[in-house]
Amino acid sequence: MPLGVWKNREFCLLMGILTLGFMAFFSSSFFLALYLQRVKQYSALETAVHLLPLAIMGVIVNIVAGLILHKVSNKLLVAIGALAYTAAFLLLALEKESTSYWAMTFPSLCLIVIGADLEFNVSNMYVMSSLPPHQQSIAGGIFNTVTRLCVTIGLGISTAVFNAIAQSTTTSSPAGASSGAEDALKPYTAVYWFAVASAGSSLLLVPWLRIGTQGATKSADEALGDTGLQPGGQPIAEGPVERTVVSK
User: Fold this and answer.
1) To the nearest 5 percent, what fractions of the chain are helix, strand and coil?
2) Are 26 and 194 a contacting pair, CB within 8 Å?
């Protein structure tokens, strides 16, 4: 792995934002499914149906991201993603056992996907373009390794939080008394607050980003330039090439 890639300021910031977002995303998604089955008493099939907005919104957001990635400032897209993450986890953290699915859970599922897919697409595009073509596989390896590690760390932290709150709730309950629905919800709420803190921390990194648009279609002259030919088919004289990065 070329260690010089970590000297790239935007690369490090995007990896930090993506890591904090993914730590919250996978942790909350896992415990949300557990909550629907254990607290709401949904069957596995009912849980899958209630989580279906994740898949549907995933398709929609990825299509939209592909259409606007080269037109809209990617810094703005990352900011929207981080805000969507934070708002989604905040809705889950404020949810009560008696709250309707459509009031809190459904909008949070939609917002979670917006955050995940916008940040993923922007970060993936930048990482793949931060190294030369012959090192693209290394760039992909770095990206996948970071995302997998952050998921593991996030699940580890959220599980520790969940178990700690569940144990303290059980200990504080009177002997022989059955825990109410609100007590059963406390460990899940604690996990969601961890997700809020993680996603909210990523928001603090967004103002330092300086990336513009990515993935614009090259013009005919630019395409010829990449092949080493002038528009008339003549070779281009060798020399230093300057690349301009649009930043905001």
Assistant:
1) 75, 0, 25
2) no
CA distance 146 to 148: 6
* Best CA proximity match to 214, nearest among 86, 127, 139, 108: 127
Name the residue with tokens 């002997």: 175
Residues in the chain: 248
Largest CA distance in the chain: 88
Separation between Cα atoms, residue 46 and residue 37, nearest integer Å:
9
- Distance, in Å, from the CA atom of 21 to the CA atom of 239, rounded to the nearest integer, reads 42
Measure Cα distances from 165 to 96, 146, 159, 184, 221 in Å. Answer: 17, 29, 10, 10, 62
Under 8 Å between Cβ of 195 and 28? yes
* Mean pLDDT (10-residue bins), the chain, 248 residues: 78 92 94 94 95 95 92 94 96 90 94 94 86 79 88 95 90 56 88 96 93 68 46 46 42
Angle between helix 9-38 and 136-172 (nearest 10): 40
Q: Which two tokens stand for residue 246?
A: 């649009």
Structure tokens at 167: 């144990």
pTM for the structure as a whole: 0.81
CB atoms under 10 Å from CB of 152, counted, come to 12
Helix and strand tally (H, E) in the chain? 8, 0
In DSSP notation, 99-159 reads S-IIIIIHHHHHHHHHHHHHHHHHHHHHHHHSS-GGGHHHHHHHHHHHHHHHHHHHHHHHH
Q: Distance between CA atoms of 33 and 158, rounded to whole angstroms? A: 14
What radius of gyration, in Å, describes the C-alpha atoms of the chain?
Answer: 22
